[in-house]
Amino acid sequence: MFKVTLSEPVVSVDWLYRQLKAENLIIFDASIPKITETNNTVSKDIQLPNAQFLNLKECFSDVSSAFPNTIPSAEQFQTEARKLGVNADSAIVVYDDKGIYSSARVWWLFKTFGHNNIAVLDGGLPEWLAQNYPTETSNSNAKPIGDFETHFNPDNVTYFKDLEKLSHSEKHTIVDARSAARFYSQIPEPRAGLRSGTIPNSKNMPFEVCLENGKLKPKVELQEAFKALSTKENTVVFSCGSGLTACILDLAANVANYKHTTVYDGSWTEYGTLTQ
C-alpha cells in the first residue's frame, strides 16, 4: 500500500486511475442538479470505484440559512467530513457528473476549513467514462469515522457586510460567474422572486469561459482570461448566483497562479435580496 499527496488543485482521470489503491485516498461524488436544468445527470446509478456520495446541499451547507448553499459552521463541516471517513492525512479527489461543476465548491469548502490535500477530477464522471475506466453500482462505501479537524481560513470567504467597501476598493476586483445574459439583466434570474442586477463595479466572467468539454482549459488560456480582468496583486472576489459556480472561477484562478482570491458566499441571491 502507498499514500498520495495532492500538490495540484486538479488531477486527471489517468492520474486517479493509477492511484486507486492508495490507502489514504478518498473519492467523493458531489453531483447535484443545476437550477437551470432538469434531468441533466449522466447517471445516478454508477460511481467511481470506492467512491462515496457527498451530500453538498443537505450535509455540507447551512440548511437553516435563508439562502442556498450557505457555508456551514466549522462544527457541522467537521462532523460531516468525519462521517465520510476523512482523516488528517486523507487525499481527497472530488468529482461530479457534469465535468466540473459542484465539485469545485467541495474543493473550496475543504480548503476553507483547512484541508489542502484535495483536488478536483478534471472532466469528472463524463471524462472517466470516456476513457473506459471502471465504475461500480452506486453504494455507500461507508468508512470508519475519521479524525479530521477544521482550521477555518477566513481569507477564503467574503460576506455581505464586506461588499460595500470592497466594491469601491482599487485593491479588489469582483468577478461574477453568472452568464452574460443574467449579469446584464437580459433574462430573469432562475430563482423565483429574485431581482436581476449586479454588484456595483463587478465584472463578468461566465464560468463556462474556463471550461472546454467539461474540463478546465489549459493554464496559459486561463492566465490570459484572468489577466484581462485583474492583476495578480489584487484580491479577486468571486461571486455567482448562490456561491457554487464562483468556486469554479476560484479553482481556475488557482490553476492560473492567482494567490489572492476569495468567494462571496451569499453571491447574487443574497445581495439581490438584501439590497432591494
TrEMBL record:
Against InterPro entries, the record matches this protein to: Rhodanese-like_dom (IPR001763), Rhodanese-like_dom_sf (IPR036873), TST/MPST-like (IPR045078)
The Rhodanese domain covers which part of the protein?
48-137, 168-276
Which organism is this protein's natural source? Bizionia gelidisalsuginis
Per the record's keyword annotation, is Transferase included, yes or no? yes
Q: What is this protein called?
A: Sulfurtransferase
Q: Which UniProt keywords apply?
A: Repeat, Transferase
Q: Which Pfam families does the protein's record reference?
A: Rhodanese (PF00581)
Lineage start: Bacteria, Pseudomonadati, Bacteroidota, Flavobacteriia, Flavobacteriales
Q: Which Gene3D superfamilies match?
A: Rhodanese-like domain
